[in-house]
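Milestone M4 deliverable, item 7.
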Amino acid sequence: MAASLYARVELAFGRWGRLLVRRRWWVIGLCVLATALLWTGLLELRAEFSPDNFLRSGDDTLEVYDAFRARYGRDDRLLVGIESAEIFDLGFLEKLRDFHADVESRVPYIEDVTSLINARVTRGEADELIVEKLLENWPQNAAELAAVERRALANPLYTNAIISRDRSFTAMVIEPYVYSSLGEFGDADALSSFDSEGEEPEYLTNQETWELIDALQGVMAEYQAPDFQLHLVGVEVMGQQLQTISESDTTLYASISVVAIAFLLFAFFGRLTAAFLPLLVVVLSMVATLGVMGHLGIPFTTVSQVLPSFLIAVGICDSVHILSMVYSQLSEGRSRAEAIAASLQHSGLAVLLTSLTTAGGLMSFSIAKIAPVAELGLIAPIGVLLALAYSVTLLPALLAIVPLRPLARRRSAAPGRAVEWVLRHLGAVATRRPKTVLAVSGAIIALALWPIREVRLSHDNLAWLFEDDPIRVAIELIDRKFEGISTVEVLIDTGVENGLHEPDALRRIEASADYALSFRDPPVRVGKAVSIVDVVKEINQALHENQPEHYTLPDDRRLIAQELLLFENSGSDDLEDVTDSQFREARLTLQVPMVDGQHYVQFLTELRQGLREILEEDIGFEITGGVALGSRTFAVLLDSLARSYLVALLVITPMMVFLIGNFRIGLLCMIPNLIPVCLVLAMMGWLDIPMNISTLIIGSIVIGLAVDDTIHFMHKFNRYLEDTRDPRLAVERTLATTGKAMLITSLVLSTSFFSYTLGHFYGMVHFGILAGSAALIALLADILVAPALLIWFLERKTTGQTSTRPQTATS
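Output delivered:
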């Protein structure tokens, strides 16, 4: 029954080929029109490279973070570290004042700028509370300058915030707008007013963020000097760097793929059309896919940057199998129309099924809890199917109009003669010594199990960049000097209005901060903790003649309420950063280093347990911020990994069984396709390549692509086995014909993947090493292990039957 179904589908492909030849100009015109319509989506395609945008919409952690940003603004602020031998020098401060003013006036989309120039000082005079800038009155002599330095160093809020502990750095903290101003340069009060309600506008766009960073870097360049060294850090700065690198590298990958593929196709086929037509077809399908991305609102990310060169390689594989048969038919004396129809009839079904298995492997990503991976799982299968559609429509139509002449037998045989000899002999090894091949393969897999145990999960944003990347160097420097640039935000809810007026509530918040500061062991340590408690202590000290011993919390509820009211009436709006307007909720900000997300998981677990004991059941709290996002992203890595691999197997295995038409042989043929996955995981253990956002997609891609060669091999093997009734001869003939196309497609895939190793982004370098190796391993598995398994199974089956007649794989 299965054989009959395959025959009907193959005949349908043959009729389709004849139709394409007759209607070739209509087909070409429709393909061009469809491409043009889809191309318009490129105008809407946007890039999204922020390291904080990895969780899918609807994730609880992300929703808490969005609610936090709506109330308190951004926690991912930009920080300019300013290095100087003496930061309390009058000349340095004057230059800092000019730099501060230029940043405020010339850089767009900025909500607030804080530095030594305008850092808050709270002091008391008689019964009056005065809140002013540190340099409200500019020092005129050495004594006044020394007084400024004493006030700054005595203020605990300054340390590790705007002054490093060793006093070699000062910082300018820049808070961008939370929401987009739709391109307008101006005040953002209407967008981020204190406790605003109503529908929220769109967050600050990438375009606006890049304009801000570019303008800021322009101002910095004017002030950069040996005694005024500037270093810009922040999540969005890293995001811009990743986007810049990715855009450049993506062009590099695609260019190398195109050139290498053109060379390989010409070398193997000896025809210009073999190099030009497939590339034209796949480039058009790639453009159409990117257009679909734009229409669907799917952003271009650090993960989807593999898409262009990947689709080129996959589309070429479809074309190679069709072209190979067309040229073979032409060499046998068939007409152009007959050759095209025969090619589609012979290879169409196999190309269809290989595209479906590849798409099935990629679809497994769509259920991942990591947004860029899930988006790849949506658009990549569409791209594969578009490549299939172009290969079985546009390519035959183009072949019907371009000059095609049979090559001389000597010329056509020369390029592939050595390849056929190698494949034939490898097949002989597999068929004559199947048990030896299987034993060696089993031993290799067994040896690979140990390094697989060493594979580690990782979500380290900084490790994406090369060690000498200027952004990474700046982040590591500032992170070290200020004891952390990442933040954990703890939202503490007293449950009642004015609950923060209660001394007991404030003391428990103070105890929470002290507990957090007790984390001093690397890699996660808390370098600073800031909350409303610090503001109340500051006010209390000021109202007690500025005496340091009164930097404490009052015991009287009414006194706390009065002090906070005085602070509000002073004209300062700094309370908005640490509490809500009802004094019900407090914000506790913890400053920690930027490290691998795996370390944040344990840290946040211990922090949560400690805070629960301190705050007890009557005070609630939530933990959010960039660190919480990183921790959650790491936590869902393993879940996404397991889901994608399992779904890939569940989708691809039934397809394999359906194609072969025999349940046991179908399962048996999945074994060679798991070998490259196993060995790639072993390589990750050997080379200490982590399983992260970039390498997470390796397994499912490898499974989907490895099955392609197996399908082509089995498709041809069944034909020859039916003709010869000799499994060994069927393997030999399969490798001598389809084997050549399998080799070409594997070389195309590996070359495209290895091009990623020339990039400037560790994730893609690792992806290139692993995926390129997997393509070659999959080829070896299909020309050695698959034939050995078939021979072993069929001979064992034949031996166990009364009849000694060899059985076909589909019988």
